[in-house]
């Protein structure tokens, strides 16, 4: 076997392993050989896969007129339906601007077969065509990537942040995580120089710019804070005071309540309602509870119940003729 043929076959096999799709005529033209030579190379690779008892299969797709390697024994890659589900979630959240969504779709499709690629586009094409970017219309992937690196390296950062009233503030932060909730990505961080039991939340799209300072976050800060656990108590990304509460839910709201407040327990089960205990941060929970109308009633503690009463009174005043 000539050196040229060996090199050509190694290159061909390398491309197939990477998930590339090989068009016979294009490959032949690029390497100045006949299409028949490429066919022989393909057959040699098939024989090699068979001899080593590989689960991978070299497939010819007649629709696309290409060869590709089907890695049937590799379960650590996303399959077709997993990719579709993931893309449906990304499209449904409207977390990214349209250009970034299209980039994510393109990246996910690279490791799929031509047929699977067609199925994905068929499944989401209407949603892509009608996709509306979030109002802030700000690309976020690069910033999220850089923030994540600062978090992983436990570095202190400085941000210029635009609040919801339009005023701009500079903050020195000790970031611990970023998460997504209700249309937005949030940076979770402690503010340097301020004593808080819990971190603050900053919408990533409102960060005008940030820089990494030459200063490390204390090890004990990152160890004592559990992002996953805190999410159980958060509603609508408002923190406040962590409380244990008792609420009365109409049956029509029970499932919604259970999904919204993961850290809950059943106290009483009636035919028309249920009473739950739960742990929540008060600010976010008040906002959410008010949006549920008469389907939920806060029973305890009394000070939280009073907050709800006060807000309802304010709302009532607005709608007085």
UniProtKB/TrEMBL annotation:
* Database matches in Pfam families: WCX (PF25583), WYL (PF13280)
**Limits of the WCX domain:** 285-315
Q: Where is the WYL domain?
A: 143-210
Q: By its UniProt entry, which InterPro entries does this protein fall under?
A: CBASS_pafABC_assoc_protein (IPR051534), WCX_dom (IPR057727), WYL_dom (IPR026881)
- PANTHER family the record matches: PROTEIN PAFC (PTHR34580:SF1), PTHR34580
Kindly provide the name given to this protein in its UniProt entry: Uncharacterized protein
Naturally occurring in which organism (per UniProt): Megamonas hypermegale
């Amino acid at each position: 076997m000539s050196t040229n043929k060996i090199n050509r076959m190694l290159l061909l096999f390398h491309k197939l392993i990477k998930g590339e799709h090989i068009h016979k005529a294009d490959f032949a033209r690029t390497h100045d050989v006949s299409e028949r030579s490429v066919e022989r190379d393909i057959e040699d690779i098939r024989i090699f896969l068979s001899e080593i008892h590989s689960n991978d299969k070299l497939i010819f797709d007649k629709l696309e007129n290409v060869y590709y390697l089907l890695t049937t024994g590799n379960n650590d890659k996303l399959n077709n339906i997993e990719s579709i589900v993931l893309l449906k979630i990304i499209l449904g959240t409207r977390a990214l601007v349209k250009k970034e969504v299209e980039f994510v779709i393109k990246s996910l499709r690279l490791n799929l077969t031509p047929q699977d690629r067609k199925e994905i586009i068929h499944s989401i094409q209407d949603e892509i065509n009608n996709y509306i970017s979030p109002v802030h219309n700000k690309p976020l992937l690069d910033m999220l990537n850089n923030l994540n690196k600062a978090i992983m390296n436990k570095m202190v950062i400085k941000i210029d942040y635009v609040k919801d009233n339009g005023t701009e503030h500079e903050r020195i932060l000790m970031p611990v995580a970023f998460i997504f909730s209700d249309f937005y990505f949030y940076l979770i961080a402690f503010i340097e120089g301020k004593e808080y039991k819990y971190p603050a939340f900053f919408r990533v799209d409102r960060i005008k710019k940030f820089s990494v300072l030459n200063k490390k976050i204390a090890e004990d800060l990152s160890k004592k804070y559990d992002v996953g656990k805190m999410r159980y108590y958060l509603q609508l990304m408002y923190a406040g005071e962590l409380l244990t509460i008792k609420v009365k839910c109409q049956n029509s709201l029970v499932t919604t309540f259970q999904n919204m407040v993961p850290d809950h327990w059943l106290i009483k089960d009636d035919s028309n309602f249920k009473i739950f205990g739960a742990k929540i941060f008060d600010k976010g929970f008040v906002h959410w509870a008010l949006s549920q109308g008469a389907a939920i009633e806060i029973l305890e503690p009394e000070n939280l119940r009073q907050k709800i009463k006060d807000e309802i009174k304010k709302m009532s005043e607005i709608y007085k003729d």
